[in-house]
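dude i think i finally got it to work??
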Amino acid sequence: MLQKLTTTRGEALSGTPWTVYPRPQMKRESYFNLNGEWDFSVKDPVFDRKIQVPFCPESALSGVEQHFGEGVPLWYRRNVVLPEGFNRGRVLLHVGAADQIADIYVNGSHVCHHEGGYDAFCCDITAYLKKENEIIIRCIDDLRDQKFPYGKQTLTRGGMWYTPVSGIWQTVWLESVPDTHIEKLNIENREYSVTISTVPTLEGKVVVPELGEYVLKNGSVTIAPEKPHLWSPEDPYLYDFTVEAGEDSVRSYFVVRSLEVQKVGAYPRLCLNGVPYFFHALLDQGYWPDGLFTPAAPECYADDILAMKKLGFNTLRKHIKVEPEEFYYQCDKLGMIVWQDMVNNSDYNFLRDTALPTVGIQKLNDKNLHKEEAHRQVFFQAAEAAVNQLKNHPSICYWTIFNEAWGQFDSDNVYDWFRGLDDTRFIDSTSGWFRQKKSDVDSRHVYFRKVKLQGDGIKPLVLSEFGGKTWKAEGHVFNPDKSYGYGGCKSREELNDALVKLYMEEVLPCIHNGLCGAVYTQISDVEDEINGLMTYDRKVEKIDPEKMLPVAAAMQQAIREK
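look at this
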């Protein structure tokens, strides 16, 4: 029998949830949060129940805790009176994410249609506003249609597959902007400098309190501090700045850091700020027992990040999920590198995608995989949306395009296309197996056998998944009857010893053979999976810092040795 688990912050939740500004890299003074209680109905807009936004209806925190079937419309309604003086030109309605298809109606008029369950969207609702306003959002989700990215969601959860999510799962909010306003900031880190540009191209200035004022020329400026304070997980320094353009003004931040590949001795190394750096990482699924896709409070992200930094980890691989920007902001601010996966669509085949590759059958030409043109085009659209939404966040240092063949197709050409989206970060085309020719790294997964890897001297070697050792913390287990992981431990002490042994006897020697990063599975338990370093409810930390910190130090020392 499944157990109902809650996080400490979920138990303490009261009032309007998620009031934090939802777009931390482009803040305005005008902000009207629409989270909290909405009228809700299923199939027909009769609005006979309530739901707490931004939690999906499948979650306990939504107050609904039910999945309503595939393709069934979910209706949300909220009556809104704008604050006095809020409308100073245009009013924009923002939805952080809604899975998968959303339509917005304001005072009876259809104003917006959006497809894609992981990216933010907004619409100008100025022309439809009255003194009192009715906002209706209709969402439709159908996991049977694998055209849309779906990640780890499944209709029959279990093992490494999780409870499905539908409807609104991120903040809904309004902002007021001038008629001519900054629609987007682009912030690009390159060679110890940062280029800031506006969309559309606007005249104005960038004010950096520590460095001075800079004039926007054709909407752009490049800033290269003479003595830059470099960003790293050990010293996550942020430069605050303001862009002033016409009647508009937005606040943001940038960092100065570099990413490059350098040959050190016999092996190419991934370098941060010109120095070989070992990316000591954890897989991060982004699931929560009470909120599923959405934690009870934005502070939950900082809690996770700090708990993992306490163990010596410096990187999280965000696994086939795109998070609210608050997650990436906390990584920027607290100093946690992110390896960001794209979210897979198309079919998954256990024999082809997992079983045979796990035992070593890893050669397959991917040009004819997932040939459905509609699926491929949706993947391109979703990947582009994810990159454009997240690329201002400097903590993201690495993109993963395909994971273990899920949705993988023509990856060499996809790599070239992706490089056109962002040529400032490392790109892992095929994480795990089915490697083709083009990728910035040689990316391997190792489960059910010892880690024995040797670099080829051509590409940096990355162990992008491994580990997954389990220990069941009684009273904090979602499914007491059926657990999932890769190698069981009978006690907390046994788990700690096994983890230290794994790193020191298997991972550490690989660093001398070219290994540049290793992603352990995983940061927390998730549903049936009990292979986390914390329990699913985050109430039990399974690993002792005093045992893991020396491991982290040994990894960094090893990668600097020629």
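The CA atoms of residues 453 and 510 lie 6 Å apart.
im so relieved honestly
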